[in-house]
Specification:
The protein is of the alpha/beta class and 303 residues long. Helices cover 22% and strands 20% of the residues. The strands form five sheets. The chain has a four-stranded mixed beta sheet with strand order 1-9-8-7, sandwiched between helices. The chain is globular.
């Protein structure tokens, strides 16, 4: 089985032939006490007039609590990590680590080399959380040599399979995936991201189950779209106006193969989800979308 897959011609196996890995069932979130929009590091943070979005911190706290309740209401246990002052984006806790189980069921996580210097300071705190939960953590490459890796912002497990989809082009260096494949003993399918609004793979692709994904076609190259079509038997195309802010529909999250937690609005996407048998759970994350993140960004699934 080829370790790094660049195009559909290299996809020489069926998804069902890939070894199984259980679903992660625990949720980690970071309290947004210090969340702020103060330094533009992605295209969503800047308004049309060039100014930064203004943040309603009380509203953000309420939205975060409602997202936490949404996970709890579908039976998931949420662990809350204390925020750190002067780390305003730590609330986007999908980005600092990449948890997985090895073939023997042991707990592991690859740590990020974040592209932004301030954000990279978040990694040790998430590392401490994972260590406290008995994870063996790894740094697999050197950040000083440009091996940037933003974990579950760009690297997504196919549910219940040892198969990774990896985005690159804005935040994560393509070279990392050869190392990640060797470390996790899992194949990686690569996707180049070229649209500045979709700077992480999780902003334009939400994997719902091993056969189905929400996807914004405009975010992918033709080669990438062909590869996605070879991996998933069912691609639900999200209209660009709902994938872009303020909808952020492809940053939805399906933790259990049924419920899809998604930004409120996104009427077309929710209709498509229902037609495919999924149950959308709308939540308002509009204050966080001002910083370029929504549901999927605001949690870490772990075992």
């Amino acid at each position: 089985m080829q370790k790094v897959i660049h195009n559909v011609s290299e996809l020489t196996f069926l998804i069902d032939s890939v070894p199984a890995m259980p679903l992660a069932t625990k949720v980690m979130m970071v309290n947004p006490v210090y969340f702020n929009v103060d330094t533009p590091i992605n295209a969503h943070m800047v308004k049309e007039d060039g100014s930064l979005h203004e943040l309603d911190k009380n509203k953000a706290q309420d939205q975060w609590q409602n997202l936490k309740k949404a996970y709890e209401n579908i039976g998931l246990n949420v662990f809350v990590v204390d925020p750190v002052e002067n780390l305003p984006d730590m609330v986007f806790c999908a980005n600092q680590s990449f948890p997985y189980l090895d073939a023997c069921g042991n707990l592991h996580a690859v740590l990020s080399n974040m592209h932004n210097d301030i954000r990279n300071q978040e990694v040790p705190y998430i590392n401490s959380f994972l260590n406290a939960h008995q994870y063996q953590t790894h740094r697999i490459a050197s950040r000083t040599e440009g091996y940037f890796f933003e974990s579950m912002g760009d690297a997504l497990w196919i549910p219940e399979r040892r198969f990774i989809l990896g985005g690159y082009g804005f935040r994560t260096d393509k070279r990392v995936y050869e190392i990640l494949s060797e470390t996790t003993d899992a194949p990686v399918a690569l996707f180049e991201l070229t649209h500045p609004k979709f700077y992480h793979l999780d902003t334009c692709l939400s994997i719902l189950n091993k056969n189905t994904a929400l996807v914004c076609k405009e975010a992918f190259t033709n080669e990438g779209w062909e590869l996605l079509s070879g991996i998933f038997s069912n691609l639900i195309e999200v209209p660009l106006n709902e994938a872009d802010s303020p909808g952020f529909a492809c940053n939805a999250h399906c933790p259990n193969g049924k419920h899809v937690i998604i930004q409120t609005g996104c009427k077309k996407t929710k209709s498509l989800l229902k037609s495919k048998g999924f149950e959308p759970i709308p939540v308002d994350t509009s204050e966080f979308i001002k910083s370029g993140g929504s549901v999927f960004c605001m949690k870490l699934m772990f075992f």
